[in-house]
Structure formats: structure tokens, C-alpha cells
Amino acid sequence: MLRPAPLPCRCEVPSVRVLEGFRLARIEHHWYLLFRAHAGRTVALAALGTTRPGDVYCDGVRDHRLFDKARFLDMAIIEPRAFGIRSGTATIRVTDSTDAGATIALRLAMAQETEFLAEEPGEVRTNVEEEAGFLTKKLSSPVDLHILAEVEGRVVGIASLDGSTMSRFEHGVRLVLGVRRDSWRQGLGRALVKTLLDWADTRGIVRIALEVVETNVGAIRLYESLGFEHEGRLRCRTKLGGTYFDNYLMARIRLPTNAA
Question: Is residue 46 a part of any domain in this protein?
């Protein structure tokens, strides 16, 4: 059954029809036809030509002029999600190159507000073109997922999973989380991490690891509540002023049901 395409973004949507089970979405400067494939992966059929009213996208129609010009991409992306938090509603979605300015501003603000992050204010990447290139690279990667949270159009949090394409390590990812201070204790960090965990579970990720400074008690409690366990301690890992602090190594393990 043919149905109108949903409208997942704020930009003008091509006048096309999309078959049931597919979704039209704009990522970067291109329109993609998204559908679910095996192992929970989202595969994108990217139309490289311009769309015209009446174009119909569907799988298996090899002689369709747009299908023949298309390419398949295995991308680490998620559907935009809305979460109720204490101060209202947060929208969580993937980052792309158009978010470069907002993510730079967020990281600069967080670096000035808290000592829990790795970067000092002067160490944050501030070149918009470099940030845009970094976000584009992460968006096209099948093993990395970078997301952000918006509240009333303002970016207030970011989180990521970074993986490996090496066969011995592809079952694991590293988690990083950052939230603006005025959005702490709102449920936003939990919503961001839960989004990452849900994606990792659909991909069959076994190991999700992270590192957190011992003074970040709130984050440690959050991770513990979501199933992360302590694996070790890195002594004198973080230096704040003239004082050294330990970092905890934590991980959540989800072995396949058929694992020995």
C-alpha cells in the first residue's frame, strides 16, 4: 500500500510517494530512503538525482530511473525520539554537519561549566569546517553513533558510541556523554544513554565501555542504574588544578543468548 512520506525534518519534503515500510528522511544535504535490514541495521537508499512529483520509491524495481542512480549505505543512525524530562520535552536525533556550530558552542559551554569532561575550554575544536567534517565522517560510519538532545530548539546534550571495524574488537564500543549544567538532574542524560543502549542492542553490541572521573558521582550512579559495572580504576588519571583524581572503568556486557 502506498502512503505519504512522514515528515521527520524541518526542510521542504520532495513530493514523492513511499512504499509501506520505508521512510523518507533528509540527512546532510540529501534525501534518503530508509528501511530496516537484518540485525537491526538501518540501510539508506540515497537518490542521487533530483526528485520529481509522482516519483515512487520501492525495493526491487530495477528499471526505475532513480533506483538505478542510487547507492546503498550502511549507516549508524536512529529515528528522532521525543523524551519527557522534568523541564519539558527533549528531542534526540543524530548529528550531521549542519550541527557543527551548535556542537562547538555546547562543548565550549560544558568545558567552562564542569571539570568532569576531558577537554579544557582552550582545547575544544572551534573550527566549524573541521567540526562539520568530523560529524559527516561519523554520520557515514556504520560503527559510530553520535547523537544530540534539543530542548525548545537549543542543543543541551550530546552522546556517542565509537566502535571499531577490526574483527576482534567490532563487538565493543566506547560511550561518551555530556550535558549542560542547567539540564542536569532532568532525566536528559538517562534519555541520551538509553537511546545509545537501545541502538547497541539492535546491533548485537556485546561490550559498551566508558571512563568516568571518581568525583562525578551523579554520572556513576546513572551508569550503575543502567547496568554498567565497575571493571577497574586508573590511578591519578585526571589532573584538576594541582590535584590528581582516579577514573573508574565501567562496562555493560550483553552476551548473545547462544554464546558459550
Answer: yes
58: burial class by Cβ within 10 Å (0-12, 13-18, 19+)?
Answer: middle
pTM, full prediction: 0.74
Same domain, 60 and 169: no
| Grid cell listed for 124 | 575544544
Could you list the residue range(s) of the whole structural domain that residue 166 is in?
Answer: 81-253
**Structural domain includes residue 228:** yes
Q: Note whether residue 52 is domain-resident.
A: yes
Q: What is the pLDDT of residues 152-186, one digit of tens each?
A: 999 999 999 999 999 999 999 999 999 999 999 99
How many CB atoms within 10 Å of residue 134? 17
Separation CA 209–CA 98 (nearest Å): 29
Q: What is the CA radius of gyration of the chain?
A: 20
Strands (E), 8-130: 16-19, 23-27, 30-36, 42-46, 55-57, 71-75, 81-85, 88-94
Last residue of a domain, one of 16, 47, 75: 75
Cα separation, 239 vs 245, whole angstroms = 6
Burial of 235 (0-12, 13-18, 19+ CB in 10 A): exposed
Provide the number of structural domains found in the chain: 2
Q: Which residues contact 6 (CB under 8 A, 6 or more apart)?
A: 23, 24
CA 233/CA 249 separation, integer angstroms: 6
